[in-house]
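Methods: holo model generation. Sequences were used as deposited, without trimming of termini or removal of tags, and paired with ligand SMILES retrieved from the corresponding compound records. Each pair was processed once, and we did not select among multiple samples. The sequence and zinc ion SMILES for this entry were:
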Amino acid sequence: MAYQALYRVWRSQRFDDIVGQKAVTQTLKNAIVSHKTSHAYLFTGPRGTGKTSAAKIFAKAINCPNSRDGEPCNECEMCRSITAGTQEDVIEIDAASNNGVEEIRFIRDRANYAPTKATYKVYIIDEVHMLSTGAFNALLKTLEEPKESVIFILATTEPYKIPATIISRTQRFDFKRINASDIIEHLEFILNESNISYEEQALGVIARSAEGGMRDALSILDQAISFSEGTITLNDAMQVTGSLTYEMMDDYLSACVEQNVAQALNALEQMLAAGKEARRFLEDLLQYCRDLLMYQQAPQLVTEKTSQLTTTFVSLSQEIKAEQLFQMIKILSETQNEIRFTNSATIYLEVATVKLAQKQPATSLSPLSQGEPAESQAVEKLQQEVSTLKKELKELKKNHGTASNSQPVPQAVHKKQASSYRVPTERVYQVLKEATRQDLNQVKEVWDDLLMSLSVTQRAMLKASEPVAAGPKSMVIAFDYEIVCQRATNDDELQLAIHNNLSRMIHDYAPDTVYITRESWPELRKNYLIQSKDNGQMNSFVPETDEEEIELIPQEPETTETVVTKAEELFGTDSVTIIDD
Ligand SMILES: [Zn+2]
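and the model returned the structure below.
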């Protein structure tokens, strides 16, 4: 059987199985029991909190002949066909890929016909905020003339993007972020059912990293399972979530508490060099400080399950005053806000580190400057550093205007990462030599699952990328942004993660990856074709790009026909332009 992601296998089939949404599920069950259902629902909430699962359960429960207490039986033909997605009266639409007016008009026309097999025809429109304005208008017309036996369930992560006219015609249910202990409990249940052993702290790390989404939690768990050797350890969870190890955090915070700015900055640099993502780092650090505070105030509430009580942690908790912790948490939260929309997180982190490691953040450094000359020199140097950093920060803010600007990082800030991306032409040709459509299709099929199985950072990197060619031993991935492409190229862990996860999803398929920019792809492909034509060894399959046109300029008149035919075979007649010169 093909690989099935945990979040698919363990998808809730009953309202009572949905974790952390009791208020919503109870209300829906009551509505079904008392036959007081609405014609249109709006399910809002963060991703992975159960919206589409609830929609499908709802569709089953109102159509199931054996429905009890508002729950579907999940055994009758109706339930089974809805679960399998083969019931023609329950139509699931992903607005992210169908945002056209035509689709909604089509729905509108079809909604006029009564259901053929089910009692109610149910349209589930996922990511409904993605619909175009025209499509929203068409949908509105449909909602304005409700039919007795048709129900619309609209699901969205971004309700504020939905026109008020639509919202006012729906009954709205808000799905909440699922709290960590509920997620942990569910993960425990699944692991026990699957006979997989684990360290309890590992689940805490996974739950926290999932940020309230069960689907994310299950994807991370999936990855931790394949990463671990038998038992899922805390370390495995740290690795797959990109969380900081506690030792790293111990070192960093100790340096801050000891007011050793240089050492703190050094620890920060090491962590970033180790590939820790700035936002993740802040999140972990905040959690650590909160844990410290908690441990000081109510040690019994901080358990081995949710935190790692290292020796340093315990001694830090005795050393730091509560006020100091409050101050640190304040600085960290502010920094978290500041870096939310910037690509220059490092400099904000450096400033925060200097602030954290200063004596009393509120008072000046003057008391220290009374000390030894060497000491006052050091202080002076620090003050200079701070003012330089502040200046740079000011400059940055000015250049970026509003925080939501996502321009590339100014060169001044990231001197170390000067761009030196070079197109790996030879390696791409190697892949193309053996590339097959079947390999590419196979990879594309599991691409979404692959993304879900990566760490948050890795997923973010691959989000704006796409596999464009694949052979039995290697594949080419094209990135929208050069800077990300370059980061990926230097990221061995990413390569390893793709390796491991693909070989799990596609039997024994562990290709080497070659990263290129999307921009360079059409040119690479074209040159490969020309070159291999010259060598008389053209691969029968070289994948096409969607939008780009290929222009093949024949070298000798007599070969024109064959080259054109070949190109047409490869790319289809639409995308071949023959240029006669
Ligand atoms: Zn049933």
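Residues 361-375, 401-419, 546-581 have pLDDT under 50 and may be disordered.
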